[in-house]
Amino acid sequence: MSLYFFVILTLGAAAGGFMNGLAGFGTALFALGFWLQIMPPAQAVAIVVVMSVVAGLQGVWLVRRSITDHPRGWRVSCCLR
């Protein structure tokens, strides 16, 4: 793997993370714009899925006290689907 590969990989991750922090979604949209230039689509999508799940779990971990303090919160969040 070359330096170019790691630079594009890092730029894609940074762009996806920035968009996720800014809007709460759009990680895949921005990261795949970079990553599809350097890796096959199946590999890029798998990495974006893992990256999105990790970011989502981080958000749940940050608000876990709010979820457990409001027992009705679980029922409301289940009904919003």
From TrEMBL:
Membrane-crossing segments per the record: 41-63
Localization terms from the record: Cell membrane; Membrane
Membrane topology annotation: Multi-pass membrane protein
Coiled coil residues, start to end: none
Keyword set includes Transmembrane: yes
InterPro entries linked to this entry: TM_pro_TauE-like
Keywords linked to the UniProt accession: Cell membrane, Membrane, Transmembrane, Transmembrane helix
Record-stated family: Belongs to the 4-toluene sulfonate uptake permease (TSUP) (TC 2.A.102) family.
Name of the protein in question: Probable membrane transporter protein
